[in-house]
Amino acid sequence: MWKAIIGLCICCLWVMGVQAQSPAGNGYHLIHLKGGSQIKGTILESSTSDTLRVLISGREEIALPRTIIRNTAYIQPNDLVLENGKLIKATGFYGTLGIGVNIAKASDGNNFKIGGLPGDVSFGYFFKPQLGIGVGASLLVIDRVYMPVYLELRSDLFRRSTSPHLYFKAGYGFDVQTNNDEFSSHSGGWSFQPGLDWRFALVEDLNLLLGFGYQFQYAERNRELWGGRRDRDEILYKRLTFRFSLLF
User: Fold this and answer.
1) pLDDT at res. 196
2) Which of 93, 127, 150, 176 could be stapled to 169 by a disulfide with Cβ–Cβ 3.0 to 4.6 Å?
3) pTM of the model
């Protein structure tokens, strides 16, 4: 289990590194004034503590008293600016970090169980707000510990600061627990999870995802019997997951 947790942490750090190393490109500053209007331009280094100097249209320089400015934001070329000034990722690389609570049931007749705090991390690329493709990994703790590694599809239904956010994950869940209890061996299998989140645009490229998904995880376990015979159990875990994630 500790190997799985360490592996998930490494994936998390790698995602952050990918985001940090993404080229900034030719972005611009968006200045939000207290009256509700906005100004696009480039904030100049000659700005002072009292005055913000902005280059607009590439040639005209203006000076704005800081007392009339609500906030400023740097807009990357792949950001989509909404009417309220919030940002969502229109195109470009993305990453997610999530945690949740699951309610699971196995096909071998086990009762429903409330799991711990399963975590997941993923990274990928948005070709447009309605289509993002990536890869990821998560931890699934029920009777045993599994680590699903998957491909995922993501889609925002609306270009708004709040929007339904669909995802589909499919891959293979590895059994990463070391002890085999009364069984001689355990193995994982295919894993699939559809889900629906509600996305909230927070600040700049940071979005909050709240929602739920339903995961299927196939597994096998083997028991050695007298006479060299082997008994194999096939198990299909099903879990309803309530998740909290950050999309950046």
Assistant:
1) 95
2) 150
3) 0.64
